[in-house]
Amino acid sequence: MFKTLQGPGVMGITLAAAGILMVTMGARQSLGLFVGPLNTSTGLGIVAISFAMAVAQFTWGAIQPLAGAAADRWGPRPVLLAGIVVMALGSAITPLMTSTWGLIFAIGMLSAMGAGAGSFSVLIGAAAQRMPAEARGTASGVINAGGSLGQFVFAPLLQKLIQMMGWMGAMYSLAAMTLLALPLVGRVTRGSTPHTTGAAGNTGDGLRATLKAALADRSYLLLHAGFFTCGFHIAFLVTHLPTEVNLCGLPPTVASWSLALIGLANIVGSLVVGHLVGQYRSKMILALMYGSRALLVLWYLAMPREAWVFYVFAVGLGLTWLATVPPTAGLCAKLFGVRYLGTLFGLTLLSHQIGGFLGAWLGGLAITHFGDYDWMWWADIALAALAAVLNLPIREARMQRLSVER
Q1: Where are the alpha helices (DSSP H) in 248-337?
Q2: Distance (Å, rounded) from C-alpha 85 to C-alpha 80?
Q3: Cβ neighbours of residue 237 closer than 8 Å, sequence gap 6 or more
Q4: CA distance linking residue 154 with residue 10, whole number of Å
Q5: CA angle 309-315-318, nearest 5°?
Q6: What confidence score (pLDDT) does residue 73 get?
Q7: In angstroms, what CA-CA distances link 8 with 5, 64, 164?
Q8: Are the beta carbons of 137 and 1 closer than 8 angstroms?
Q9: Are 18 and 154 in contact (CB under 8 A)?
């Protein structure tokens, strides 16, 4: 599986990018653990806190194409350094915020902007430009697995810190831990020359022409629609799973370990899917993953609300959690090449996070007005099934023809 990563510097770039994503995604995907303690401490209400988390989902997505374009223009190093510092600053000032608008500024804006600048569009774009085409699928899977490992590490760690130090102490600790990613930036960006020759879309068209072509391409728009659904249920779950666990009368550790298991399972899923994108068409992989999510949620709704059900649900969902990223990024590269992959995949991530905004916010409205998340679960099933169908018409050559892009 890892033979394609044996070229000069390829493994080092891949592991460094995975390490950065481990910190930025691990911290970001564990913020739902703070919803209950924040509500108890500030009295702002679940709806207000959910809205701040929803703004964070949207901001994280909105910054992706901008950060990707900046990295395409000036290189990834300054973008990654600024992102990590801003993310740490957002976490550090969150305990000082006592209003909804303050929480939106700290978590919804600063933390999310920093996490977005140190996330998929910049990291996968930087790595793809610095390695040969045959290594990109596996590399994106390994990088993606870094984010999942971060969730596995950060969720139980932050839950323990909240119990030991209170949510404010845990948030200050999170700010300090974020800065640990700074030394890895140099390894991702040091020395290697981008591999941008011979790919579609790299023949001097320029960013504006490439964007115009992409936004008129039905396959690219269908990819966005499917990824919207992915964002919807991921944001819903990371924000509201702790509250769902509480509704079932189970201890908070069930939520933190469920989030950790999602991350652990997605390490496996990311590595396997990263390998499979070199052997099977990405659109078929995506359709199967989205369809499996609809079936898994149906299974969850049919089962009793016990701890083992949450753990099985977490493992099943984790196998496809962020494993959608390698085939989605791969399809962007197949359609338009890697020269502007940071920008184009960033736009796709924006669609993901528009779904994320709705998943986080509507979940808060549901629990406040109806007392449970039932209608959110059914919406999740419908959207996942729709996403599976929408991926099928995407234009993608069969694998024996992939050497001729577009």
Answers
A1: 252-276, 282-302, 307-318, 325-336
A2: 9
A3: 262, 317, 359
A4: 27
A5: 130
A6: 81
A7: 9, 28, 45
A8: no
A9: no
Judge whether residue 312 has pLDDT over 80. Answer: yes
Of how many residues is the chain composed?
Answer: 406
Q: What is the token pair recorded at 362?
A: 């509507």
% of residues, the chain, pLDDT over 70: 90
- Say if residues 150 and 21 touch (Cβ distance below 8 Å): yes
In the chain the first and final C-alpha atoms are separated, in Å, by: 26
Residue 402 pLDDT > 70, yes or no?
Answer: no
Q: What does the pLDDT look like over 335-371, one tens digit per residue?
A: 887 778 778 888 888 898 889 889 888 988 898 888 8
- Say if CB 279 and CB 9 are below 8 A apart: no
| Residue in 181, 177, 180 with CA at minimum distance from that of residue 158 | 177
Q: For the chain, percent helix, then strand, then coil, each to nearest 5?
A: 80, 0, 20
Instruction: Return the amino acid letter for 301.
Output: L
- Maximum Cα–Cα distance across the chain: 59
Across 70-97, average pLDDT: 91
**Mean pLDDT over residues 181-207, rounded?**
62
The distance from CA 155 to its chain's CA centroid, rounded to whole angstroms, is 15
Query: Which residue, among 33, 312, 279, 58, has the nearest Cα to 170 in the 3D structure?
Result: 33
Residue 265: which of 151, 385, 356 has the closest Cα? Answer: 151
CA–CA separation, 150 vs 54, rounded Å?
Answer: 21
